[in-house]
Amino acid sequence: MEIQLWREILEPYAMAVDELVMKFQHLMVEYKTNGIYSPIERVDGRVKRISSILDKAQKKQIPIEDIEGQLEDIAGIRIICQFVEDIDKVVELIRNREDMEVKKEKDYVNHAKASGYRSYHMIIYYTIQTRKGPKRLKAEIQIRTMAMNFWATIEHSLQYKYKGNMPDHLYEKLLKAAEAIIVLDHEMSLVREEIMDAQNFSSHKSRVISDILNDIQNLYKVGNKQEMIKIQDEFYRLYQQDDLEQLIRFHKQLDIIAEGYRAQSL
Ligand code: 0O2
User: What is the mean pLDDT of the chain?
Assistant: First the structure.
């Protein structure tokens, strides 16, 4: 097939990848700005390279003209979670979306592949709007923990290097490492609540600090210099004490001061 034709085929998939990544990223932001723990830690995506498409088509004996019909991962999204429990949450979230229709699911989290690979795969239908009108295409979403991702990334590069002929000793080491990943994910799940609390606390604190700094910046435009120096010193003092409750109270006081200036200016 001509390179130009490949470009035409792959362009809609690139658009789907961009849109899907952006949608999941905004979901993360939505969770965080509402002070809710996000089950999504990171998301990225890619369009399969032409050489990988050709390799897979050859391996699976798919005729070139039917690549779009039979290859389900031309558009690929990877969602990384902190904990195994988050994977279920993300799966549920995708099942409930109106802009994504689930075609197929593969649970390699509870049913690992012989290689030791673990991840949850969802093939979805997703519609993009092109110059020629709507196009419904398939995309693969892989959902896995950071630990599973670490293993899969290493194993994938070794598979690539050895092209299916991985030496036995390496294969066994990878199987052992895969077992260690199961243990690690399990151990992390045991302290999930505490980790989530700590993360919520730290993101709440950074939001309060950022709000305080915004308020101070706005007050600088209207407040008198003496008062601003006092406010700033007070902020540094509280910041050093590292007491969230006090910072929240200070933020409320700033709101009252700002309200006073607003009333004066009317
Ligand atoms: P790449 O380079 O990542 O794109 P099937 O549904 O069985 O007919 P398919 O598409 O092979 O066909 O399904 P499967 O097994 O669910 O694999 C899809 C993708 O999952 C693979 O794409 C890999 O990204 C990943 N994957 C599957 N098995 C393994 C594994 O053992 N190790 C690693 N590291 N990744 C795996 P590609 O096209 O094989 O590769």
Answer: 93
Q: Which atom of ligand 1 is nearest to the CA of 156?
A: 34
- Beta-carbon contacts of 186 under 8 Å, excluding residues fewer than 6 positions away, are 84
Distances in whole angstroms, Cα of residue 61 to Cα of each of 57, 65, 159, 262: 6, 12, 20, 72
Q: What is the dihedral of CA 241, 243, 246, 248, to 10 degrees?
A: 130
- Catalytic status, residue 234: no
Structure tokens at 41: 């830690």
Phi, psi at 30, each rounded to 5°: -60, -45
To test the pocket of ligand 1, the residue of 117, 118, 141 to mutate (highest count of ligand atoms within 8 Å of its CB) is 117
* Ligand 1 atom nearest to CA at 104: 6
Confidence of residue 14 (pLDDT cuts 50, 70, 90): very high
Q: Which of 43-52, 106-115, 221-230 has the lowest mean pLDDT?
A: 221-230
d(CA 41, CA 192): 14
Terminal Cα distance for the chain, rounded? 70
> 3-class DSSP state for residue 140?
strand
3-state secondary structure of 159: helix
- Does the Cβ of 52 fall within 6 Å of ligand 1? yes
A 10 A CB-CB count for 199 gives 14
pLDDT tens digits, 18-31? 999 999 999 999 99
Residue 93 neighbours by CB under 8 Å, 6+ apart: 27, 39
Average pLDDT on 173-191 reads 96
